[in-house]
User: Which sequence fits this backbone?
């Protein structure tokens, strides 16, 4: 095992490529594949869409203008409720179900901390909150998910923010 710091006066070694989890060595689980992550995410997205479908149907509200007395129908879509449902789904499963959502479980993956230990409740919340905020900001969810393609550790931006990795089970 390498010492944590090089001796005085010597340059620091370059980072290892491809990345290996340092504390667990060869027994460490390998990083989950990009395609499996995509399919697990699609599966989870469909489950969340089914669960949240009763609250995202467009409903109509009758609004009367007090000054003119005109009556108008206004459509109300409850996307905030759907976002809350999605946040709770991903956060609770990741935090309390061995770092796995149902999609990750089916595809044999789980979320762990960068040192290989189980993900903490707060980390799972930060991870999911970052993903939702990026999804709400114009088209940044594409950048978030696309980051996996270019990152050596296959981390999306929400993984980098929370300090997590997705590994094979």
Assistant:
């Amino acid at each position: 095992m390498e010492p944590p710091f090089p001796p005085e006066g010597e340059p620091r070694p370059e980072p290892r490529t491809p990345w290996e989890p340092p504390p667990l060595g060869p027994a460490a689980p390998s990083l989950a594949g990009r395609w499996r992550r995509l399919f697990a995410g699609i599966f989870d997205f469909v489950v969340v869409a089914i669960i949240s479908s009763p609250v995202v149907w467009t409903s109509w509200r009758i609004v009367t203008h007090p000054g003119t007395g005109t009556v108008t129908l206004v459509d109300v879509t409850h996307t905030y409720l759907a976002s809350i449902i999605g946040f709770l789904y991903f956060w609770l499963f990741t935090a309390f179900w061995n770092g796995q959502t149902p999609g990750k479980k089916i595809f044999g993956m789980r979320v762990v901390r960068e040192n290989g230990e189980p993900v903490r409740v707060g980390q799972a919340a930060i991870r999911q909150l970052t993903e939702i905020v990026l999804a709400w900001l114009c088209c940044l969810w594409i950048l978030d998910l696309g980051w996996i393609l270019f990152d050596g550790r296959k981390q999306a931006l929400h993984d980098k923010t929370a300090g997590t990795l997705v590994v094979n089970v």
Observations:
- Strands lie at 59-64, 71-76, 109-113, 164-168.
- The mean pLDDT is 84.
- DSSP finds six helices and four strands in the chain.
- The first helix runs from residue 34 to 56.
